[in-house]
Amino acid sequence: MRPGTVEEAAGVLADAAAAGRRVRIGDDLSTEALDRVLEHEAGDLTCTVEAGIRLSALREVLAASGQRLSLDPPGDPTIGACLAGRLSGPLSHRYGTPRDLVLGVTLVLGDGTVASSGGKVVKNVAGYDLGKLVCGSEGRLALIARVSLRLHPLPPAAATLVVETADAAAIVRALRRSQLDPSALDVLHPGRVAVLFEGRERAVAAQLDAARSLVGGAVAEGAVWEEARERQGHSLGRVRFSPADLGNALTTLDEAVVRPAAGIAYVAHRVGGVPAPAARRVQRALKEQLDPAGVLA
Hints:
Blueprint: H1 6-19, E1 37-41, E2 46-50, H2 55-63, E3 67-68, H3 79-85, H4 92-95, H5 98-101, E4 102-108, E5 114-118, H6 130-133, E6 143-150, E7 152-153, E8 157-164, H7 168-177, E9 184-189, E10 192-199, H8 201-215, E11 218-220, H9 223-234, E12 237-240, H10 246-251, E13 256-259, E14 264-267, H11 277-290
Antiparallel strand pairs: 1-2, 2-6, 3-7, 4-5, 4-6, 8-10, 8-11, 9-10, 9-13, 12-14, 13-14
């Protein structure tokens, strides 16, 4: 099923609820046909898009106005997939994850109800911050139909520094305690720390010089970020740790792409574990509120 409007998507889920069918978003119900840019307020650095638009298509539209969505996960997912899967990339160091960039959403609930929340939408509802609520929900709570997003200007200059080291934690600690303001800071474990500086050309050059004076390293091509995203995309699990405990975390990992500020390591093996009882209670309560009939698989 590939609805072309929010109303069609609502009809599909309403019919499924009436028939007692379960629907898996992405498999049974696709947003591929919901792929338009509905509004771009360049002066306000915001846009509203349908959830099926892919990052590459949105990137091309925004670049014409010298702007971007500062979200760079592996591959070329849709905006809806970015929110539902809480997908992000190296730029999350400075700009955060999808929940930090979403201003508002329009959702279709399991019974076909259309609900909107946040800014830049036709109608708001009191209660849940739906935009943040569905980040990481993996399609279990609602179909994400439209999204309003915060944008940033395209930086006129960028430079990457790569430090080869046997003590990545010490390099990261020195960088994070400094006055430097990188857009990305990844540990490509083992052996390398990559730092991205963006902004005006003189400011980038000054930060690059300061970073080299502080931790050494060499100026590198931007391909290192493609490597980081590719390795992240091929990972099978995520390990969480306290950012202050980076050194100990690295000793437990053979190979990983590590985002020190977020306390997340993307690893090559599957990671087990279940949510805590309190988290499971919250999940069940949300499911009962938004999809009481259990339509969404």
